Amino acid sequence: MTTALTTPAPSSSASTEPVVRVENVSRTYGTGSAAVHALQDVSFTIAPGELVALVGRSGSGKTTLLNVIGGLDRPDGGRVVVDGREVSSLDERGLVELRRDVVSFVFQTFGLVPVLSAAENVGVPLRLRKLPTADREARVQLLLDLVGLGPHALQRPGELSGGQQQRVAIARSLANSPRLLVADEPTGQLDTETGTAVMALIRAVVEAEGMTAIVSTHDPLMVSLADRVLRIADGKLVAG
């Protein structure tokens, strides 16, 4: 029997409300003449189910913006609301719950545990939630099949190519059916052909899992696959 994809339950904010709301957000590192204004009065929203590409040169503020949205960094001014939660005012426990239940991340560096198999890596978030073994194994197999790695479930990261490792990382990011996927240059370490496949995969899994996503990228394919493009330069939103 085929197990259906687990789609996250609708939040109390309903589908008419943005999943992401960024309002007049600023972030500065350092002080005085050494100050770096990483973000300057940035505002935008992202609708449910939308795939947004975040584009800008290195140092433009893309990573800082993604970190602020995902609760890995705090803005100096403004507010960020994700799935009805005001991220910028959450305490540490609230941030842990946000990153466990609502937001999932994919980075350039795959972040896999070398001694664990592909299946075990994907299952880590489900173990932390104490999901029953049978349910966990079914979900892991479903996700590995979704990213095209079902036959590689028992292989460790060192036995997989870079593209395969990123696919495992994407499968792991989907384990808890997050409302929002945040991806920071997910193809930055991959060759063009492999990166193209991973970008197409992100588009497919966003649709299959009913998620919203924001992806920073230099890849023209990702831009073409996105529903909308946000461009950032010198910490300021210049389009979108």
Automatic annotation (TrEMBL):
Keywords, comma-separated and alphabetical: ATP-binding, Nucleotide-binding, Transport
GO cellular component term, pick one: membrane protein complex
Residue intervals of the ABC transporter domain: 20-240
InterPro entries: AAA+_ATPase, ABC_transporter-like_ATP-bd, ABC_transporter-like_CS, ABC_transpr_LolD-like, MacB-like_ATP-bd, P-loop_NTPase
Keyword Nucleotide-binding tagged: yes
Presence of keyword Calcium: no
Molecular function GO terms recorded: ATP binding; ATP hydrolysis activity; transmembrane transporter activity
SMART domains: AAA (SM00382)
Protein name: ABC transporter ATP-binding protein
Gene source species: Cellulomonas terrae
